[in-house]
Amino acid sequence: MAKYKVMVVGMGKRGKHHAAAFQANPNFEVVAICDISAEMLNSAAATLGLEQVVKGSDAAAIAARVKPDVFCFCTMPKLRCDMVKIAVDCGASLVAFEKPIGENFEEALKIKTLIEESGIRAVVSHQHRYGEHYRKVKEIAASGVLGRIQMVYATATGWMSHMMTHMIDYMSWYNDYAPVNWVMGQAAGKGKQYDNHPSPDYIGGFVQYANGVRGYVECGAGAPDQPEVAKWWGKNRIGIQGTEGFAEVLTNGGWRAVTRDGVQSGEGAMNYDADMPPYIQEMADWLNDGKVHECCFANAYAGFEVMMGIVRSAAFGGQAALPLQSGPDELQALFANLSDAPVIANPVNIQEYCN
Questions:
Q1: Which of 95, 101, 210, 248 could form a disulfide with 87 if both were Cys (CB 3.0 to 4.6 A apart)?
Q2: pLDDT band at 337 (very low <50, low <70, confident <90, very high)
Q3: 342: buried, middle or exposed (CB in 10 Å: 19+, 13-18, 0-12)?
Q4: Same-domain status, 24 and 44
């Protein structure tokens, strides 16, 4: 069987991870790479052994020329809609891109419409789930040993646009992607307003799932330390609690559980070398056999809607009912309404948010 042709846009860290993983999978062949920086493009080509593929800075022109089966982009959030349109226009069968899916809900709606009207398959990189420690907690959650599920929760010291849809996606995964009825949120701090992943410094929210489970999520300066974890970006904790116990994962600190079967724990840490291959293989499975990818756009869209609902609540007050309706740019409204008072950071986060 012929290999699927892949084009990767953005040759930063994540773009190189994707290109290497595609090239290592026998179902795919990277035929083009793109970046607006010639230095980054040439460096990546040399590092990845892709000197002979099509290279350049104009993603639309290259895509029209090589007509990839898979169009993958790892660029900043502000470019999401434009890149998905390029994928659709060049006739790609699948588009893969980084989270979050956009900068506001209106943009997400446009992307959703592009995907649904074109029929293109779409995958969003919430790939932490392939870690053995994440999957162990899912196994426990699905086994019934926790009794009636009451709560899912997640905290991350990284800021919202980097981490919150990760946290929401894994919470919802542990809760079998039950629909969400409403959310409510609060936020503080404008220090990350002009970051390339614009975010409040700290944001937290309540999530009411339709199956009665309550979710709690927080990201940023006020998020708690996970002392068991040394790597700052790995201080993320996602868990599920029922009437007969709980199970939780730390991104760089393994997993632990207390159930009616006793106290359990195990190792595990986020590892791109281990997590990327199954993420890429599921794209081949979707293209070859029709098996929908675990990181499909539908799941990512649902999580992004939850995040934007929390932002709307923080910006305008009150609860936000889901599904969301069209409205103003939530993030800009939040920054307009936030106090100028500096965020109060937990000690572990002071260096990132208060310097």
A1: 95
A2: very high
A3: middle
A4: yes
Q: Does 1 score more than 80 pLDDT?
A: no
Query: 279 pLDDT exceeds 80?
Result: yes
Q: Are 32 and 68 in contact (CB under 8 A)?
A: yes
Q: Under 8 Å CB-to-CB from 53, ≥6 apart: which residues?
A: 30, 31, 32, 33, 45
The predicted-structure confidence for 191-240, as pLDDT tens digits, reads as follows 999 999 999 999 999 999 999 999 999 999 999 999 999 999 999 999 99
**Structure letter (DSSP) for residue 274:** H
User: Is the same domain home to 102 and 214?
Assistant: no
Cβ atoms of residues 272 and 17 within 8 Å: yes
Nearest Cα neighbor of 107 from 62, 69, 75, 77 is 77
Identify whether 10 is part of a domain. Answer: yes
The full length of the chain comes to 355
The per-residue pLDDT of the chain, averaged, comes to 96
Same domain, 210 and 328: yes
Domain at 96, CATH number: 3.40.50.720
DSSP of 288-338, one letter per residue? HH----TTBHHHHHHHHHHHHHHHHHHHH-S-EESS--S-S-HHHHHHHHS
Sign, CA torsion 324/328/330/333: negative
Number of domains in the chain: 2
pTM over 0.85: yes
The distance from CA 157 to its chain's CA centroid, rounded to whole angstroms, is 15
pLDDT tens string 102-152: 999 999 999 999 999 999 999 999 999 999 999 999 999 999 999 999 999
Domain residues for 21? 4-124
CATH of residue 341: 3.30.360.10
Q: Which amino acid is at 169?
A: D
Residues 6+ apart with CB under 8 A from 236: 154, 155, 156, 157, 158, 163, 166, 167, 226, 250, 251, 252
